[in-house]
Write a structure and sequence with these properties.
single chain; about 160 residues; mainly alpha; 5 helices; globular
């Protein structure tokens, strides 16, 4: 190998070692200085701010339906496996109620709060299977009441 060829290989290897370090340092400095509100619009991944005309019933009923796809049929809750997917769907319902529950009609907000609490309990991986099953049964009872009330108002 000639000297110039070795020099060229050394430069490539140095670049391969230095570049990741530079990118890491640059990434860390940007993470420690998050953009301010004055620096521009929110990132595309941010969820939209609900408007005062938001339909809380539609949002919550939709979340309930989304969770239902992974749940055992009604009456077979004791056969439910509370894996990450199921707990995640219940947590999604909880989060939807947290975010949009204030847009439910005033008289339905207590049902929304109960639904949120039962979804949270069912999503908890640190309670027994029996407690999760009980939470799921209560969640479904509350979800059914909320869906019926929303539909009777022409929403959801």
């Amino acid at each position: 190998m000639s000297l110039s060829h070795r020099s060229w290989i050394a430069r490539i290897l140095t670049g391969c070692l230095v570049l990741p370090a530079v990118l890491t340092i640059t990434g860390c400095s940007e993470a420690s200085n998050p953009p301010s509100a004055a620096s521009g619009p929110a990132p595309a991944t941010a969820s939209p701010t609900p408007s005062p005309t938001e339909d809380g019933c539609a949002r919550v009923v939709s979340a309930i339906g989304f969770a239902e796809f992974l749940l055992q049929p009604k009456g077979k809750e004791d056969q439910q496996v509370f894996d990450n997917a199921v707990r995640g769907r219940l947590a999604y319902v909880e989060g939807t109620v947290v975010r949009f529950g204030r847009y439910l009609p005033a008289d339905l907000r207590p049902l929304g709060e109960t639904l949120r609490d039962e979804a949270k309990r069912g999503a908890n991986a640190h309670i027994s299977q029996a407690e999760q099953v009980t939470a799921l049964r209560e969640y479904r009872k509350t979800a059914d009441e909320l869906i019926a009330a929303c539909r009777s108002r022409g929403s959801g």
